Each structure stands twice: as structure tokens, then as C-alpha cells.
Amino acid sequence: MVRMKTLDSFFKRKRDESIDGEGQDLFDAPSVPQLLELQPARQEEEEQQQQEEEVRFSDQEPHRQEAATAQCEEREEQGQGEDYQTNEPVMFRGIEFLERDPALRPQIWQYPNNQRDQVVRAYLHLGPIQPLLKKYKPSGPKGHRRRFQYIWFSQFPSWLEYSESSGRAYCFFCFLCSRNIKKQGGFDVFTAQGFDTWKKVNDGKKCAFLVHVGSEPCSHHNNAVAECQAILNQPNHIENIVEVITEREKERNRLRLKTTIAAVKWLTFQSCAFRGHDETPQSKNRGNFIEMIKLLAEFNSEIASVVLENAPKVCKYT
């Protein structure tokens, strides 16, 4: 019977193998005096590593703070954009229910499309909100805090607004013509966010309010002013102009048709021929029908303004 070898027999050290440092195990721990000598050296190395890490952390801390601030701002912007997209439409119930505070009122684009013109007319009827307060809310860093000045309303009386709840300034016309379209940064400062950097107001040509208005007639603010004026000018709206022109054309067509019928009736009763040999405008005798219309036009200026050469080509009735 063959004797089976065990697993340990394969890993046993052979007697003829020589080991460096015979009589000592490679994994034997160092002696106690050696440990005592190594401890101070290890402590010094650990202290040096800690100092280096502290220096690195102190150098990187400002950058980390800036990165964290930027991330917070990005999150706020993303959250604000999500609010813009998820806001539900606001129904217009009447001018007495409109929110007057610029910081609390809903944006114009949040109303249904068929109610926006009514809301804009209602706000234009009420005008911008310009409260007179003893003290306006301060803003800015400590030691350099500034406040809104009531005299600014007299400098920009038509569009400048102030919110008592947020302590910020807004533009009345830009709010009325605002759209849910994101443009460059700061596009909604005077409509949704509000402006409170008061140190930039009294700065000559760089005044924030003057920069907002713009020096060109086609600036965003000036376009908003023109759009609001057009909304108030209801008699010149396209639907009203079309209706007026349509009614006037109807009257002219009726007068032209009556003149043609009168000439046809007279010639029919008299058994006269209608057409002539040459009915061109240069002809001396254009036929009984056209000559009868010319005769009626000579005695009535209104008929003369609507018949023959004064009539449209598509409805001369001749």
C-alpha cells in the first residue's frame, strides 16, 4: 500500500538548505534597546509630516473656500432656474388683487398669454411703487453700509421702484416686458433679483441706473418703454385699425355699387346700348354706361372719389 504525502511535506524546509544568519529567524523582532533608539526618530518624522500637512492645508484653504462659494452660487442659480421653469401660471383676478411689492409680485410671463396685456395695462394704470420711508434698509459690508435715497425717485420718476420687503430697487417697465428667457448674467437684476449695490449709483457716467437705461435708443430698457407705450395706445392697435379700414371700405363699395346699379337701370329703361366702340380713358366717347357714371360723378364728389379711375382694379363694377 502506497503512503500518501501530506500537504505540509511539500513546504517543509530541507536539511541541506542554508539560511543566512543561521540560528536567527528572519521575522524575529528587534531587541528592546533597538526599539528605544527608533522611537525618538519615528516621533521626529511624524512631527515633520504633520507640519508639512498643516502648511499645505493652510495654503489650499483659501482656494477651497473660493471653490465652495462658487459651488454654492452655482447651486443657487440652478435652483433659481428650476423655480423659473416649474412656476405654475398665475391667474389675473382683477386690478385690486395685484401684488404691489416688486419683490413679492409674480413675473408677467407667469400669467397666461391671453391675460398678459390686461395685467400690463393694470400695472401701468397703478404706476411704479415709490414709498417714502424714514430709513431704508442698509446693505453692504460692515462699516460701509449704504441705503437707498428717496431723491433718486425724482431723478428716475417713470420707472424706478423700491421694495420694502427686500430693500432693493427694480425697473417698472422692464418688469412689465420681462420674458422667461435667460440671457447673459445679471439680465434679471432689475426685474426679479433686485438691485442694492448703492455705491454704484452716484458714479457719474458709470451710474448703475444710467447704465441700465442705456445710451442707445434700442437698449433693452428703451425697448420696454416703447412696448408699454404701444400697449397703452389702443386706438392704433392692429385689430382696431383693420376694423376701421374695413368699415370705410364697405361704405365706399356700397356707394360704388349703387352708382353702377343706377346707371344700369336708367339705360335698361331707355333701351340704350351699354358699351361703346372705344372705352379706354383716352377715348372721347367711352360708351353710354361709363359716360353715365361720369355724369353722376360730376355732380357728387363722393361718387367721384370711388368710381372709375379712383376705384380698385378688382372692384370697379364697370
The N- and C-terminal alpha carbons lie at a distance of: 136 Å
What is the helix fraction of residues, given as a range? 40-55%
Query: What is the radius of gyration?
Result: 46 Å
Q: Return residue spans where pLDDT drops below 50 for at least 5 consecutive residues.
A: 16-29, 78-86
Number of strands: 2
State the shape. Answer: elongated
How many separate helices? 11
Mean pLDDT: 76
- Please summarize the sheet with the most strands: 2 strands, antiparallel
- Order of strands, main sheet, comes to 1-2
Structural class: mainly alpha
Which H/E pattern describes the elements? Answer: HHHHEEHHHHHHH
Can you summarize this structure?
The protein has 318 residues and is mainly α. The chain is built from 11 helices and 2 strands; from the N terminus they run H-H-H-H-E-E-H-H-H-H-H-H-H.
Describe this structure in words.
By secondary structure, the protein is mostly helical. Among the domains are: 95-232, no CATH class; 248-315, no CATH class. Helices cover 48% and strands 2% of the residues. The chain has a two-stranded antiparallel sheet with strand order 1-2. β1 (160-162) and β2 form a beta hairpin. α9 packs across α10 (288-298). The longest helix is centred in the N-terminal third of the chain and has 55 residues, at 32-86. It is elongated, with a radius of gyration of 46 Å.
